[in-house]
Amino acid sequence: MSDPLIIERNDDAWVFILNRPEKMNALSPALVQALTAGIQNAHAQAVPLLIFKGNGKNFCAGFDFSDLDTASEGDLLQRVVQIELMLDLLATSPAMTVALCHGRNFGAGADIIACCKRRVAEPGTTFRFPGIKFGLILGTRRFQNLVGTQTALDILSSTRTFDASEALNIGFMQELQAQEHWSTVIEAARNNNAVLSDVTRQNLYKVLYSNAESDQNLAALVRSAAAPGLKDRIRAYLKPN
């Protein structure tokens, strides 16, 4: 079985490649654990640049529901909490973080993108946050901080799909680039990192990306996920119309 996450390590940058293409890189427990451990290891080694992308047709399809029938309510709660802890680790990273996304991206996959400081999409990429349909409040404040309250309300409450062009217009994306040009995006991130010293850059990130909301984000998620019937709500969401 292939590793769910590939990490390409260089002195000045680690590239995290989600590697479950047959599952659209959906977030299985093993993938979430690998991402958490990988980000923690990068922080321990003071890696200044972390880049995230996905193998296959898309970046990430969000929560992996493939074992829903055998998972208990407690299992599901634990899994969404682990995802939120991973997202918080990424959102408050002392490194420059870059998301390179393509294809169709959903839920917690789009939340990973929202946690990154630099966000680039291939033209034609789409995004959707469907979690509110089964009662999960995950990553809401981070998305709000990027696009503003009214836009976040419109997109999150309707759970509608939006494309890369709209994402650029509302500030969710900062640049549209075809995959063959992503190497230039990475090189630009390297060059930008070189402008400031590591200490100065980290201090700047501490001010701009405070972890003051971390506990509130986790509390909101737990309250929403712990409401009775999470499994049934997910089943209802997955049921074909």
Structure characterization notes:
This is Enoyl-CoA hydratase. InterPro entries: ClpP/crotonase-like_dom_sf (IPR029045), Enoyl-CoA_hydra/iso (IPR001753). The chain has 241 residues and is α/β, with parallel strands linked by helices. It has a single domain, classed as 2-enoyl-CoA Hydratase, Chain A, domain 1 (Alpha-Beta Complex). It has 10 helices and 9 strands. The chain has a 6-stranded mixed sheet, with helices on both faces. A 3-stranded mixed sheet has the order 5-7-8. Helix 1 links the parallel strand 2 and strand 3. Helix 1 packs parallel to helix 2, helix 2 runs parallel beside helix 3 and helix 4 crosses helix 5. The longest helix is centred in the middle third of the chain and has 19 residues. The relative contact order is 0.14.
Brief descriptors of the model:
six-stranded mixed sheet; 10 helices; catalytic activity; 2-enoyl-CoA Hydratase, Chain A, domain 1; alpha/beta; 241 residues; globular
- Low-pLDDT residue intervals, each spanning 5 or more residues: none
The CATH superfamily is known as: 2-enoyl-CoA Hydratase, Chain A, domain 1
**Class from secondary-structure proportions:** alpha/beta
CATH architecture: Alpha-Beta Complex
Number of domains: 1
Euclidean distance between termini CA atoms? 34 Å
Order of secondary-structure elements:
EEHEHEEHEEHHEHEHHHH
Mean pLDDT level: 93
List the helices and strands and how they pair.
Blueprint: E1 5-9, E2 14-18, H1 29-44, E3 49-54, H2 73-91, E4 96-101, E5 104-106, H3 107-115, E6 118-121, E7 126-128, H4 140-147, H5 149-158, E8 162-163, H6 164-170, E9 175-176, H7 182-193, H8 198-208, H9 214-226, H10 230-238
Parallel strand pairs: 2-3, 3-4, 4-6, 5-7, 6-9
Antiparallel strand pairs: 1-2, 7-8
Helix pairs in contact: 1-2, 2-3, 2-9, 4-5
